Amino acid sequence: MAADRDGGRTRPAARAAVAGAGGGRFGFLTVGQTARILGVSPSTLRLWESVGLIAPTRSGGRYRLYGPELIKLLKRIKYLRDVKQLNVPGIKHVLGRTTTDQKRRPPRDVSQFGPKLRRMRLKRNLSLTEAARRAQVSTGFLSAVERQRANASVATLQRLASAYGTTVSALFNRPRVSGRLIRPADRRVLETESGVRMEFLSTGTTMLESMLFRVGPGGGSDGSYAHQGEEFIYMVSGTLEIWLDELEGTTLHAGDSFWFESTLGHRWFNPSKEEAVLLWINTPPTF
Q1: What is the DSSP string of 178-206?
Q2: CATH superfamily of 113-283
Q3: Using an 8 Å Cβ cutoff, are 39 and 32 in contact?
Q4: Could you say which architecture CATH assigns to the domain 12-96?
Q5: Do 269 and 72 form a contact (C-beta atoms < 8 A)?
Q6: What does the alpha-carbon distance between residue 249 and residue 198 come to, in Å, rounded to a whole number?
Q7: Averages of pLDDT over each 10 residues, the chain, 287 residues
Q8: How far is the first Cα of the chain from the last one, in angstroms, to the nearest whole number?
Q9: Is-same-fold flag (12-96; 113-283)?
Q10: What is the pTM of this model?
Q11: Selection from 197, 8, 185 nearest residue 104 by Cα
Q12: Domain segments of the chain: what residues?
């Protein structure tokens, strides 16, 4: 009965891990089960993970778990590969598109966070392999991010920042202005290829961090992450689905407010066909 823990058959320990994370109740599957549903090999799923296309949940840091929304994304990736004959960069480009109109918004932050990540890693005397292990990504993917040849997801950036003892916002240029007032044109912005745009609404604060999130259809954190503190969300418009420790799932709509402990593993995504806009506050500033 014993098989590779990410192979075609599921070890008893892996089955227990799935059950512990919600199992059939929440629709989580192992890599072997997911591969059979999609008609691909487990190694293909691991490859898509290593290049940053997907970020499955880990049960206790060991077994990969695939939820319903990730299965939908995997089907989309398989379609783009098999039918549209796209390579990985092409798939990333398609998945990164959003249908939101580009109204007047603050300019995109063009700071080179790849080299900053590399400097932070070297300053802490971490090898690529060790840093990648801490951030739960492949060595090759981290190397590509440092060389500006790949973009990390929100979850990966947060895990890297945590591994380096800093915050995600520290990887990007701070607003040029100081003081209590920040005009829209003076905000600094972080965007990911997974359809997430974060506009920093405060600067110089020591107890909180406030951001305006714009999450495109199908966009999200691309994985779970955790850190110290508490978080508050107010939904301005659209829909956002958020999961805490893979056990508590909540769908937020316009006008809803929601808070949670940041120490809970949290991942989120927009399941609708419209952009979601939300106010997101962290305290202390650990994002």
Answers
A1: -SS---GGG--EEEETTTEEEEE---S-S
A2: Jelly Rolls (2.60.120.10)
A3: no
A4: Orthogonal Bundle (1.10)
A5: no
A6: 23
A7: 42 43 55 89 85 73 74 87 79 59 42 78 91 83 80 80 80 61 83 80 86 90 86 97 92 97 92 93 83
A8: 43
A9: no
A10: 0.57
A11: 185
A12: 12-96, 113-283
